[in-house]
Design goal:
The complex is a heterodimer of chains A (146) and B (86). Chain A is α+β, with helices and mostly antiparallel strands. Chain A has a single domain, classed as Hotdog Thioesterase (Thiol Ester Dehydrase, Chain A), CATH 3.10.129. Chain A has two helices and six strands, in the order αββαββββ. Chain B is mainly α and 86 residues long. Helices cover 63% and strands 0% of the residues of chain B. Chain B is built from five helices and no strands. In chain B, helix 1 packs across helix 3 and helix 1 packs across helix 5. The chains are: A alpha+beta (146), B mainly alpha (86). Chains A and B meet through strand 6 of A and helix 3 of B.
Chain lengths: 146, 86
Amino acid sequence: MTTQEILDKLPYGKSFLFVDELLHIDENGVKGTYIYAKDLPFYESHFKDYPVTPAVILTETMAQIGLVCLGIYLLKDINLNTSIAMTSNAIDFLKPVAPGEQVTVTSEKVYFRFNKLSCKVKMENAAGEVVCKGNISGMLISKENG
Amino acid sequence: MNKEEIIDTLKTIIELYSEEATALAHIDENTDFIHDLKINSANLVDIVLDIEEKFNIEIDNDSMAKMLTVKATTEIIAQKLDAHAG
């Protein structure tokens, strides 16, 4: 499965897609990038006079690259329409991310059992500094059931 | 390890994943993880992984699918422990 095929399978619309490119993916992990365009709508209000990327968006970016892309790859041999629901996360936020910054997300699989995927994920800025890190887990759910 | 000991150990694992204080205080063989303890599917996986570690056994997919009540779970743990010992 090519990285483009994985990106094509992502279920997000344009305004909520936080994956630009996958640099590497295998059974044990994934690495990908995203640039937060300066005109993303939330910068206008978060905060009123000081645009900074919301922590919830950083979390979503880590989940889309680290959990969902990896989940799609791990299920590549199963011919089923599945979706992935984030079920828990624990993230530390170390540095702010400004509009226009590019980030790199690296995810390592902790376990994938009984349809639950748990990953250790970190996000770095262009200078290679860790901006946030933690654990994200999700359940792979077949479309018929959920 | 007899049945009561298995249930006692099981209780210490389950307590971490349920907020249902009343149901937790009255855990017995008939307690249902989803209906009585309101445990979701993601936490059911955590419980099974904790069981594997605590009892030093391996749970396969078929067994996992049956582990929805204290009774069924206790029986599966007992079976695996027996197989291990034999």
